[in-house]
């Protein structure tokens, strides 16, 4: 890598091949944020953003389609959590019923310590 072009290297398949310049620097695009997160940012946080940053794209209002997508994602997440909670409770109840049928808790036996008795 040369100091005149940082992040650019020469690549060859073999020692006799012509070198190919390869740029290793990452190309950074726009910031990607999920639609439901953007909706929350706009509705809850925007009122606290200073005036000079109000027009920033991350604070922009969502379109109707984006709002619908965000609401659908939140609803799907809520339904999934409810289903997982219900399944976990059923499994827990089933395990508790099976454990009661299989084994009873044993009482701890009392032991007499003859070493510590004072004579």
From TrEMBL:
Biased composition (Basic residues): 74-83
Extent of Basic and acidic residues compositional bias: 13-22, 87-98
Region (Disordered): 1-22, 61-119
Domain of life of the source: Eukaryota
Protein name (Swiss-Prot/TrEMBL): Uncharacterized protein
């Amino acid at each position: 890598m040369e100091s005149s072009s940082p992040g650019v290297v020469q690549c060859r398949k073999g020692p006799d091949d012509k070198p190919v310049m390869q740029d290793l620097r990452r190309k950074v695009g726009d910031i990607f944020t999920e639609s439901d997160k953007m909706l929350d940012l706009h509705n809850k946080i925007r009122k606290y953003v200073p005036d000079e940053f109000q027009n920033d794209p991350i604070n922009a209002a969502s379109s109707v389609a984006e709002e619908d997508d965000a609401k659908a994602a939140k609803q799907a997440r809520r339904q999934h959590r409810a289903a997982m909670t219900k399944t976990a409770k059923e499994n827990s109840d089933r395990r508790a019923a099976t454990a009661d049928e299989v084994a009873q808790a044993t009482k701890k036996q009392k032991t007499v310590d003859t070493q510590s008795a004072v004579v």
